[in-house]
């Protein structure tokens, strides 16, 4: 159930946003062994960003919100590497040192889909995603 929020000061057309969202969804579903239906991407362009005191150069801030303990240390490393590679591919003006990433973990009961709060009925591991989440009434 990760939510990936990409904010950039670059200007993107709708096709670039879609392409980036597809790439990030693929990266997260492969790395976390979860369904694409549980991976959400938000891309916001034309934001004011000043990384390292420099608001002129293209930059991106990526926030990854996920249920606590759902992203292992190794998966986090793989995601950082994948995001660092994907963003410059989709935003050609962006260099890797201008990407700032934040991982935020929340208790699973803080996530909802529609009018249903999510709960885990088993511990999530990379090898077993059966019964990963159930929807509580």
Automatic annotation (TrEMBL):
It comes from Tetradesmus obliquus (Green alga). Transmembrane segments: none annotated. SUPFAM superfamilies: Tautomerase/MIF (SSF55331). The keyword Phosphoprotein does not apply. It comes from the Eukaryota. This is 4-oxalocrotonate tautomerase-like domain-containing protein. Residues 61-118 form the 4-oxalocrotonate tautomerase-like domain. Pfam families: Tautomerase. Keywords: Isomerase. The keyword Acyltransferase does not apply.
């Amino acid at each position: 159930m990760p939510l990936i929020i990409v904010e950039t000061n670059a200007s993107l057309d709708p096709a670039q946003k879609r392409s980036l969202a597809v790439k990030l969804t693929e990266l997260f579903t492969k790395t976390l062994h979860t369904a694409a239906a549980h991976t959400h991407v938000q891309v916001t362009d034309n934001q004011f960003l000043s990384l390292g005191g420099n608001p002129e150069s293209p930059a991106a801030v990526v926030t990854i919100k996920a249920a606590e303990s759902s992203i292992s240390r190794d998966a986090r490393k793989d995601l950082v590497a994948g995001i660092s590679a994907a963003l410059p591919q989709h935003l050609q003006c962006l260099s890797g040192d201008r990407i700032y990433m934040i991982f935020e973990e929340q208790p699973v009961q803080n996530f909802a889909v529609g009018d249903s709060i999510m709960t885990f009925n088993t511990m999530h591991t990379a090898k077993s995603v059966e019964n990963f989440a159930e929807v509580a009434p």
